[in-house]
Design brief:
- The chain has twelve helices and 14 strands.
- The protein is an alpha+beta fold.
Length: 384
């Protein structure tokens, strides 16, 4: 019976080949879906379409992980890497949609095995690095008056907390700054915000400004309404290096609250709340893309070695590459500044894990580690 089945399949393949017709055997691992995405740019619209395709095609697989710890964070990390997972797709249509946004419609093939392997990879890195930490500080003004708390800041915090991030709120930053008699506003002292974020041992800090100003009165649905206009900007940085990762801005949003007065704090807060819906999503997507990049290509660690000559530093660079071929992605440098050789290391490990290598065996005869921060290692040449 088995031989007969094999013969029939062989005969069918030969017959279809002779007629020039493609004969495809269904692949149980592949799901084909149509998906559409939207965004402010064509690139972001296509990226959104890929994310939606991954969500549609991998719905059953992702649901099977729903009881796993940090489910939301791992799931959204996988969505952020959709363009690297869904590689077989075709753009069916793209262009302008209502409201000045772009759309992209695709047909994609989603591999279930790719979702499973990526899930395992992300979970392993998460177990290794721990939950990513984020510090958030947004300075808000209504009619030029600085607010004690920030609506936009609160919205970002809730979004990140729900996703599984370890979040340190702007209120904590304000309190520390007050104790140190410092001005930690995003405009006045970015270095202070970064320094406090470092103390929290966060990977990313988000800061920015938002303001709402009176824009007259208007009658809406028969009711007098105080109207406000506003604008805002959010910037995201790596805490250890201060490198700018993303900048999101939104201008000329409107909001209002019932009232006869031109100046209305409630109307100003409503304008800020309206802005937050868009800005928070864009900020969250940026955070997830950076976090996903860190997992897939490794984060950046800085190694500073004092008292070493250039020839010695070049030899050290080669030795660093050999520590762990799978985890040390690249070693950039050395850069010499004031007697210190600086190496920037792309690695799929924490600074603490790298130090474990640097204090063992023959490493101890080359350099001595003197300080360890979140993503920064300071050392000096032995005998230098």
């Amino acid at each position: 019976m088995k031989n007969l089945k094999t013969c029939v399949i062989t005969w069918l393949l030969t017959a279809f080949a002779a007629t020039g017709v493609a004969f495809a055997i269904p692949d149980a691992d592949v799901v084909e879906v149509n998906a559409e995405g939207q965004g402010l740019t064509q690139e972001s619209a296509c990226r959104d379409a890929l994310r939606n395709a991954l969500e549609l095609g991998g719905k059953a697989e992702l649901a099977s992980y729903s009881q796993v710890e940090n489910f939301e964070l791992i799931r959204d990390t996988i969505f952020a890497r959709a363009d690297g997972i869904v590689t077989d797709y075709k753009v069916l249509e793209k262009g302008d949609a209502a409201g000045g946004i772009k759309f992209c419609r695709i047909r994609a093939q989603v591999k279930k095995s790719a979702i499973a392997s990526t899930w395992g990879e992300v979970q392993n890195v998460l177990d290794q690095l721990g939950r990513p930490g984020v510090a958030v500080y947004i300075l808000e003004r209504i009619d030029g008056v600085v607010q004690d708390s920030s609506i936009l800041e609160s919205q970002i915090e809730h979004k990140l907390l729900d996703a599984g991030f370890a979040v340190y709120a702007g209120e904590q930053i304000r309190n520390i700054a007050r104790k140190e008699s410092a001005d930690a506003s995003a405009e006045a002292n970015l270095a202070k915000v970064r320094a406090i974020a470092k103390d929290f041992e966060t990977q990313i800090f988000i800061t920015g400004t938002a303001q709402a100003n009176a824009a007259g009165n208007k009658t809406l649905f028969g009711e007098p309404t105080s109207m406000y206009n506003g604008d805002g900007m959010i910037k995201m940085y790596y805490t250890d290096s201060g490198q700018l990762l993303a900048s999101e801005a939104l201008a000329n949003w409107r909001g209002g609250a019932r009232g006869y007065h031109t100046h209305s704090p409630q109307a100003g807060k409503k304008a800020l709340e309206n802005a937050g819906k868009e800005l928070v999503n864009r900020c969250y997507n940026s955070v997830m893309r950076q976090w996903a990049t860190r997992i897939s290509s490794g984060g950046e660690l800085t190694l500073e070695v004092e008292g070493m000559k250039m020839v010695e530093a070049i030899k050290l660079k080669k030795k660093l590459r050999q520590i762990h071929p799978d985890k040390i992605v690249a070693v950039n440098g050395p850069r010499a500044t004031k007697g210190i050789m600086t190496f920037r290391i792309k690695a799929k490990m924490t600074a603490e894990e790298l130090v474990e290598y640097l204090v063992e065996d023959d490493w101890a005869a080359i350099i001595e580690v003197v300080d360890l921060k979140l993503n920064r290692i300071q050392a000096k040449k032995v005998g230098g």
